[in-house]
Write a structure and sequence with these properties.
Number of helices: 12
Distance between the termini: 56 Å
Structural class: mainly alpha
Number of domains: 1
Pfam family, one: CobS
Order of helices and strands: HHHHHHHHHHHH
Function: Joins adenosylcobinamide-GDP and alpha-ribazole to generate adenosylcobalamin (Ado-cobalamin). Also synthesizes adenosylcobalamin 5'-phosphate from adenosylcobinamide-GDP and alpha-ribazole 5'-phosphate.
Radius of gyration: 17 Å
Shape: globular
Low-confidence stretches: none
Oligomer: single chain
Helix content: over 70%
Largest sheet: none
Strand content: under 5%
Organism: Saccharopolyspora shandongensis
Pathway: Cofactor biosynthesis; adenosylcobalamin biosynthesis; adenosylcobalamin from cob(II)yrinate a,c-diamide: step 7/7
Mean pLDDT: 90
Subcellular location: Cell membrane
């Protein structure tokens, strides 16, 4: 196994880009999680290009933001928003962890999922409407979102099921790597985007720590759906925070 094997699998796994994965075994899958923030930056670059192009063509800001969110969903095969929907339905149901996990596996979208998708995607679109003149913020936001994978898979966080993606990658990311990624993103945010973006990264990290604590208490650990939900929540936090703080107060 080489570093490139993990990177190829990460790109193939987390995007629609036609990059063939030459190895798909347990160690390579765990290594792929380590590269998730890089793939997030790549996905964000596609979104930023779409936002810039739509704005240049004269699209109204909210329309440009909404269409850019659609681009992000297409580039990721809708995996992360699907994970968000399933996780929210699981968190919203009654009963023991086994029932919650069954609800998540069901595949249908309940009322909690529908409301969550409307809110999260709506907030993303509205935030991008305020950030049309700073499209590269989307690169940072998507990188932070995928850094959520690394944070959720940190050492000590178990899988909720004995099978599936969560069982494969839970607890696989050492503390030093998690810390390195988030400090690097914090530095990039502060130097390249300003204190508002740096604060957004800190808020995203805090939210994900609370989120993984809650999912561990409710489900017994993480699943692949939890990772998708974490990505969307962190991305939305960065976009919303930077949009709000960048908007002048009347």
């Amino acid at each position: 196994m080489t570093v490139l094997d993990g990177l190829r699998l990460a790109v193939s796994w987390l995007s629609v880009l036609p990059v063939p994965a030459q190895r798909v075994d347990d160690p390579t899958c765990r290594q792929a999680i380590s590269f998730a923030p890089l793939v997030g930056a790549l996905v964000g670059a596609f979104g930023a290009a779409a936002l810039w192009a739509l704005t240049a063509l004269g699209a109204p800001p909210l329309l440009a933001g909404l269409l850019t969110v659609g681009v992000l969903v297409l580039v990721t095969r809708g995996m992360h928003v699907d994970g968000l929907a399933d996780t929210v339905d699981g968190l919203g149901c009654y009963g023991p962890p086994e029932r919650a996990l069954t609800v998540m596996r069901d595949g249908g979208a309940g009322p909690f999922a529908v409301v969550a998708l409307i809110l999260v995607l709506g907030v993303q679109a509205a935030s991008l409407a305020e950030l049309v003149h700073a499209p590269l913020t989307l690169v940072l936001a998507c990188a932070v979102g995928r850094a959520g994978f690394v944070l959720c898979c940190r050492t000590g966080v178990p899988a909720a099921r004995p099978e599936g993606m969560g069982a494969l990658v839970a607890g696989s990311q050492p503390t030093w790597l998690v810390t390195a990624w988030w400090l690097a993103l914090l530095a990039v945010a502060g130097v390249g985007f300003g204190w508002q973006a740096a604060l957004a990264v800190v808020l995203a990290a805090a939210l994900l720590l609370a989120f993984t604590w809650h999912t561990r208490r409710r489900f017994g650990g993480i699943t692949g759906d939890v990772l998708g939900a974490a990505s969307e929540l962190a991305t939305t936090t960065v976009l919303a925070t930077t949009a709000v703080l960048a908007t002048p107060i009347a």
